């Protein structure tokens, strides 16, 4: 592949805007097509960004031989089938997180990638953050020693987006699969991607979507319906790995909490680190503990820059100049963890992962 890569974006909802902006900022990309089953939304998105090719069925887009790669920005329940269709059509794929909704689906996507020989990159965007890559250098060079413990929180006090996010049939779940996937993957990636051994989790559906609350604005999906909510409010879990390390996580769409919170922390034998809420490293030198705060452009995750890095990396992978940082195999392992947590919560018992 040489010159500009022609890209189609499938799904014209909110997250697609981050992909589109990043593609338009990449000189090696031609944003060639937009697709959405909602014809009005597809046309509006294409007009906004001056894209000439508009589709209302993803198969029609995939049948266009000019399209070389696609971003899949659709509901979670369509990630696997559209990814498989795209790979069979000979396209490279960037699929938003989560990879799919079940481990069985993930295995089918993995097989399709193997058969196609094409790139599939899972949208674990936080891996591509500048601070993540800086911290990974510390870890890879042994500055923190063996990472044996991590903990992560992503707490919204009021933040159930409703619509398809709140519909388990389309989303696969609530805050665990929507928010937890980010922080679980970020910790797992920085821990060196150890093989998961077991998970023990809990989910709670006690508060609903709290549509009654006034005087506190929050993001609502375009198809928000206050009467629809079939997902959990809160999930927590402990994930154990074969190397003895462990990860503790809790995430919520709604909780009687004082404030929203995002926190990602890792602890090793030689030092520790926080990547959220602010990037910092804890070290020990000459029998003294040091708190080190790097001088970087932004101490927290830069959303726009993260997506730009992710898209740039995807295009370089499509053009054979890099390997993706988030291959299908990693998407499969994260699905094992997510599905294991839901299964553990349903059974009230720890689940062994194979």
Oligomeric composition of the shown chains: single chain
Helix fraction by DSSP (H/I, runs of at least 4): 25-40%
Strand content: 25-35%
Radius of gyration, CA atoms, in whole angstroms: 20 Å
Average pLDDT, to the nearest integer?
Answer: 97
Secondary-structure element pattern, one letter each: EHEHEHEHEHEHEHHEEEEEEEHHE
Measured distance between first and last alpha carbons: 38 Å
> Could you describe the largest sheet, including whether it forms a barrel?
9 strands, mixed
- Strand order in the sheet with the most strands: 14-13-12-11-7-10-9-8-15
Number of DSSP strand runs = 15
What would the principal axes of the Cα set say about the shape?
globular
Keywords:
354 residues, alpha/beta, nine-stranded mixed beta sheet, six-stranded parallel beta sheet
